[in-house]
Amino acid sequence: MLGICRGRRKFLAASLTLLFVPAFTWIYLFSGSFEDGKAVSLSPIESQAHSSHYTASNQRERESLEIRMREVEEENRVLRKQLSLAQSRSPTHRRGNHSKTYSMEEGTGDSESLRAGIVAGNSSECGQQPAVEKCETIHVAIVCAGYNASRDVVTLVKSVLFHRRNPLHFHLIADAIAKQILATLFQTWMVPAVRIDFYDADELKSEVSWIPNKHYSGIYGLMKLVLTKTLPSNLERVIVLDTDITFATDIAELWAVFHKFKGQQVLGLVENQSDWYLGNLWKNHRPWPALGRGYNTGVILLLLDKLRKMKWEQMWRLTAERELMSMLSTSLADQDIFNAVIKQNPFLVYQLPCFWNVQLSDHTRSEQCYRDVSDLKVIHWNSPKKLRVKNKHVEFFRNLYLTFLEYDGNLLRRELFGCPSEADVNSENLQKQLSELDEDDLCYEFRRERFTVHRTHLYFLHYEYEPASDNTDVTLVAQLSMDRLQMLEAICKHWEGPISLALYLSDAEAQQFLRYAQGSEVLMSRRNVGYHIVYKEGQFYPVNLLRNVAMKHISTPYMFLSDIDFLPMYGLYEYLRKSVMQLDLDHTKKALIVPAFETLRYRLSFPKSKAELLSMLDMGTLFTFRYHVWTKGHAPTNFAKWRTATTPYQVEWEADFEPYVVVRRDCPEYDRRFVGFGWNKVAHIMELDAQEYEFIVLPNAYMIHMPHAPSFDITKFRSNKQYRICLKTLKEEFQQDMSRRYGFAALKYLTAENNS
Fold first, then answer.
1. Angle, alpha carbons 102-298-204 (nearest 5°)
2. pTM of the model
3. For the chain, what is the domain count?
């Protein structure tokens, strides 16, 4: 602020110099042309006539004065140049007109604001504050409901975070689904200087459910009308955005426009860029009343405090009731009602330049909103066609959108230097845990992975499933990365029950998965598969974290802990439900073992019965799982007994046992210290045994492992000695932890390990 004042003082001094220096110069020169009160001509002829009155010194003085006059003229020229530069860089100039190209599109009252800004620039208001303070919090409200809208919100937020320089406070009006997804996402994203508050959209339904709405947004498309009632009473202003918005500039620029509101202006809106409200799109087209072309509500600036004083709630309700008597329903949801209110009260609107809402629907005037890429501020995909909309520059807009869609969200976890963040308990605990690790430890990276918080997007695709009422339902749980996507369709064909999958992907890979799933008839026909994206971070595959994420988000009382490379036998889902009931898993601690087999053939005629499987086993087409490389992992299943068994039988835990089991949903989580390859399942089975689970082998169940190329992690395990050393260290530490938790009973694990 002191710098601004000094700048204005310099501006004033320069102006005075420019005015007075030439005047004094000419007065001085003119006065020098008098002698004894008589005028002295400076012309050559008269100079000669009066030569007797002039001495040599007088001549030199005159010449020196002429030289000085030329110097002063040159100084004045330089001053004028500096003055023009100072005016063009004036802070008030910048605030008064952000884009000279669109100064005439500023809307209601803006030309007066511009003139007032220039006048203010020439005044000495040294106490005037900048439009947006460095650490001023910007408030953004978004209505979001469902699975698809939650994905759209993420892309919108990425574009805002990419450009922002201020703290942000998002107010999300969300249904139960969106709240679960976005609460987990932001909690695991851990972006500094970002606060999230949720408001229950379902509780607001009664406020707008009386309004018939034909728009594809449904009842949620009307909820912006009740924001004055929904948002905190002490919140004075907010930017309201649709979910299909992409920012191409710092949102603080839009927040600064609030300072241009004057009088009774309480709504900042961009003119609608289609002919919808002109009523000439088709024969007998009858839109809601609007002022001219009307206004688009994809981007709204709301002065909440003034709206409340104006009784906005009563205003829009009365207008809606009156218009619905003839219109019967809204076609464009809240936008129709906003425009009807504005038609009656045009003084409410401050018209924003159209680059703050470039509307990419068919047949719009959006191309008139920009002449260059640098003109773009906000892109609005407000057509049901979204990225397939017709526009001369749609490829550019699509690429801009896809950039944020696939942008690594982890890179947006940057601090706002100089702006204090609110205390975050989770972040502080994480920093404390990491600070206790020894960075010189050769296994530091392994230990650090245990505390890494991975950004997680639950239910990436639509999920809809109601568990069976008989309390026997079972969910198949697995995890995978991009190189195992081809297994999804086959598993869905083998298992008709619910599935919970955790996918370890980058942002770009998540979009590849989305396109793959949407192009698959098999996957799109299933609503009972929950896809949970855990975003990549760090150098290890967090296998047990992925399993825990998939386990945590099941809705059935039981789960089948499988791996993505296994195909369950046909009918296994129904067989497990019957077994759960027969073996009374509801009241006993049991882990039901599904015997595992494998084939080395990429093309396999899958056995349809136990008898057919035994025949293939005898012919060498199938083998017991890991028979060639790791027999200890499944040997306790006792395959010799299984061949002839007709009833379930119990087996005892042995060292390195890692079967695939069916358990209650309240079983222990997997231990996160084990990443990549090695001991991730072994440790879990050991803990089940420590908690006194009985291991029961099912006589008529089986699963078959399909061949695939070795994973990157198993390659590291085999080739990297330090990897194997660290895994051995982690095993020993896990066993010590087991001894502390379970006491004397856990000693057998140390003994078994030493004997193995």
1. 150
2. 0.80
3. 2
